[in-house]
Amino acid sequence: MKSRHSHRQAALCGAALSVLVIAVSGASSAWAADAADAEGATGLSEVVVTAERRATDAQKTPISISVVSEQAIEDRHIYSLTDLKDGSAPGLTVTPFASRPFSIILNIRGVGIMQDTNQPAADSGIGVYLDGVYLGRPQGLDAGLYDLQAIEVLKGPQGTLFGRNTEGGALNITTKKPTGEFGMQMVGGIGNFGSYESQFHLNLPEYRDFSVKLDGMIQAHDGYVKNPMPGQRDWNEAARRGLRAQVRWTPAPNFTADYAFDISHTEDTTIFGYTLKAANNVTISPLSSVPTRRIDVAPIGAILQPSLGDQWGHALTLAWDVAPWLTLKSISAYRDLYQDQYSQPGTTGVPITASLGAGQNFQRLSIAQFDQDQYSEELQAIGEVGRVKFIVGGMYFHESTADQAQAFNTLRWDTSGAASGITPVVYTPFGNSVLGPNACITTPASCATSYNNFYGQPGQTTLVKGLYPNIGVDRASQATTESFGIYGQATWTPPILEERLRLTAGLRWNEDRKQGELLVVNNTLPYLPDATGQLTNVQGVIKRSESWRRVNPMVNIAFDIAPDISVYGKWSTGYRSGGFNSRSITYSSWDPEDVSMFEIGLKSEFFDNRLRFNIAAYQGDYKDVYYNISGNYNTFATDPKTGQLVVVSGSTRTVEDTYNMKGVGKVSGVETEFDLAPFEGLTISGSYTYAEVTMPLFTDPVPRPQINAAGVVTGYALNTPTLYHQLYTPQNRVTGAINYQREIFDNATLRLHLDGAWNDGQYSTASDVSTGTKDANGNTIYLPQLKTETGAIFNGRISIADIPLVDSGAKLTLAIWARNLLDTNLLIGRSGSYVRPSSSVTGAFNDPRTYGATVSVKY
Q1: Coil, strand or helix: which one is 522?
Q2: For position 502, what pLDDT does the model report?
Q3: pLDDT digits (tens, 9 = 90+) for 764-773
Q4: Angle at alpha carbon of residue 714, lines to 708 and 720, rounded to 5°
Q5: Which is nearest to 315 in space by CA: 301, 330, 304?
Q6: Number of C-beta neighbours around residue 69 at 10 A
């Protein structure tokens, strides 16, 4: 008997096939039709993409693609990839990592999601390319973007042309290049929450075959949740600034050299976290609260400062048309990234114990450093011989990463002399009301009992020096990656069927090599595992070295039913690289994930290019999916006197291991998009996506130790097989936009824009909630995990563009804009259980309504 999931997949594919059949039957007479527009008509403009590593018409490119155009970037007030989190890019989910919002979680089709984006030896399954250069880390993806040509969302495995870590798809970001003609644009704006923005773009005239372009940007806003602690920053602050310089050299008509240098700086504070339901065995502080919606001011102040990120890079792209049928291309790049990271959660629903005794420490501050550099080289031969278009290439990528982290409580209930047992809080590692706010940083001995750190003061290891040298280091690691790839893809148009048929095949070979070292765990050297993986009482640096090879084929058959209607069928594969977990006390490793996917699609235009409609359906197997699993909090050794296994050390540190799932997951879905231009000046667009990801039951392979009061391990217990949900994957998602423009005076243009996005919720925590009880078969009983809230977000913009400035040749644009126009409150992160009394519910809300005005002058 087929499962419900199988029937649903069949129904989805059947619906997509029905659309294809209707298109075929309705287009039989359209092949010879006149494709010219009617007199005075205005159709949809062509969308050019580089998804096949060369410029092509998106409607003639047989894969599922969504494009955020230059105009859409302006209309939606997009300054970084973070601004796509409202769902404005169809099929793409963008979620800032709550504790470190400069790290972005990307998801396409529910594949390749990175749970812990701060891992230095783990990779996202969505590749991000900037002008052909692969960006190796999710850290720093919130940096400012400016003067973009487009953001292309390439869906499904892109393992053949784009390589490793594109099993879910790729983001292909392209920027505008130097024009060789003088041009300048200046943009300035202000808004609520103290926001301000500025952009500067300058093109210089070509001189002796050299063209230069300069771009700069500044953008910032105050926090969305105020911090009542004096001298501290607010939650949800952001600031970005950056500069890019480009030089184009064209010494001959058939040769171009493009050099680019960019440098950027970001400052972000933590997204405010909410306790939305307290567990029944927890007493909430009367100074705190359990809110039901977004709040403006935190009930308790906390130590909070912004995370600081700096990155810069060089890129050199050479293109040489050696013959009319062949272009050779080289893309060389070096990039460097450094961050000081600070994470402090929200202060709603702060628990206190029944008896405070000498006091209770709370409000955990996490501090980390992250350092990364990468260099890459890619060579391509792109050409066309007769009926064959081809690309052959090779790539080398090298990356070095290092991280360390410290975590400690910054607040403490002061119970001295209080009849009620609760009085105002005082600072701990950062000082107290008597010694001052910085006393414990500079002179830890003077802090006496107020000094609080999970792992004591430093000195047990000299391998790492923390950001705060008087506080112990939780963990530290370093890793290097080398990747080699060779690929080729060719499209053949056979001399049959009026040359409507196109056959494409591609193949890529990749080898990844990773080496890593775990330097510190819980402020000391790790305990080394033996040959069986069990920990010993011998300490030292844990070293790992792994290599993996993959071959990723692709086959695509496309057929033009009519000049503006085509169908295609595609089979493609991709993978996400393996790695090591720096939060694991054994530095556990895992193998790559693999995806194999079938896709069928229709791309069509009707009514003299006034209506564009595309649909794709896909189904695939998802193998060796890896998840982070909470690990043992203790390290053990054998007592030489008794032979019993005893606890060597214990901590409250969150430890995790990473494991590949056994079995095969199933991925399926449907993606539709349309654009309609019913009359001149008006464009209506929309999309609907359905995505379903089903994972096999996962059995945690880690035996959990049973420890008695004496610290002796009396045995081990295995966990019950558990259902894991794929994260950040709404099952149903709808987007829409309306754009209208018309000339109003002196060639000035009035432009109106409104867009909206809705989804039916997604998981932000993978596992269901354990009740702690077992059924008749001895299996643990679980309650369903919560999804995020269902709802829609709307954005809008009104502008008067290209107002001539008298006798200057310049044009002025005035605009007002708003994001989350209706100030909708939605929980975009939520986990826990309202049903289980002992379970709390935590989460985060979306951004409040933001609005502002901008002025642009263009020469």
Answers
A1: coil
A2: 97
A3: 988 888 887 8
A4: 100
A5: 330
A6: 15
574, 596 contact by CB (below 8 A): no
Tokens at residue 304, please?
């909070």
Do residues 796 and 815 lie in contact, with contact meaning Cβ atoms separated by under 8 Å?
Answer: no
Which residues lie below 8 Å from residue 42, measured CB to CB, with a gap of 6+?
677, 679, 680, 681
For 561-588, letters b (16+ CB in 10 Å) and e give bbebbbbbebebbbbbbbbbbbbbbbbb
Q: How many Cα atoms within 13 Å fall on the side-chain side of residue 748? A: 17
Among residues 545, 528, 432, 523, the alpha carbon closest in space to that of 478 is found at 545
CA-based R_g, the chain, Å: 28
Sequence-distant (6+) residues with CB within 8 A of 196 are: 188, 189, 190, 218, 219, 220, 221
- Whole-angstrom CA distances from 655 to 147, 459, 630, 671, 715 are 43, 22, 6, 39, 20
pLDDT tens across 207-249, in order?
A: 999 999 999 999 999 999 999 988 889 999 999 999 999 999 9
- Residue in the structure block whose two tokens are 């086959």: 555
pTM: 0.90
Nearest to 684 by CA among 614, 607, 754, 601: 754
Beta bridge partners of 493: none
The residue behind tokens 């001149």 is: 680
- 542 neighbors 526 (Cβ within 8 angstroms): yes
| Residue 81 DSSP class | G
CA atoms within 13 A on the CB side of 635: 22
Alpha-carbon span 657 to 712, nearest angstrom: 23
- Asked if 800 and 775 touch (Cβ cutoff 8 Å), the reply is no
> Going from the N-terminus, what domains does the chain have, and what CATH number goes with each?
4-858 (2.40.170.20)
Q: Take residue 54 and report the two structure tokens written for it.
A: 């060369």
285-289, 451-455, 587-591: which range is least confident on average?
451-455
DSSP code for 63: S
For residues 38 and 52, what is the distance between their CA atoms, to the nearest angstrom? 32
Continuous segment of H or E residues that includes residue 12: helix 4-26
Distance CA 291, CA 289 (A): 6
For residue 693, give both structure tokens: 């990801």
691 contacts: CB under 8 Å, gap ≥ 6: 109, 110, 667, 668, 669, 729, 730, 731, 733
The encoded tokens of residue 272 equal 């405010």
How many residues make up the chain in this entry? Answer: 859
Q: What is the pLDDT of residues 418-446, one digit of tens each?
A: 444 556 666 655 555 544 555 555 444 44
Terminal-residue alpha carbon distance, the chain: 68
Rounded Cα distance between 560 and 23, Å, is 11
- Helix, strand, coil shares of the chain, percent, nearest 5, are 5, 55, 40
> In angstroms, how far is CA 74 from the centroid of its own chain?
21
**Structure tokens belonging to residue 581:** 């977990």
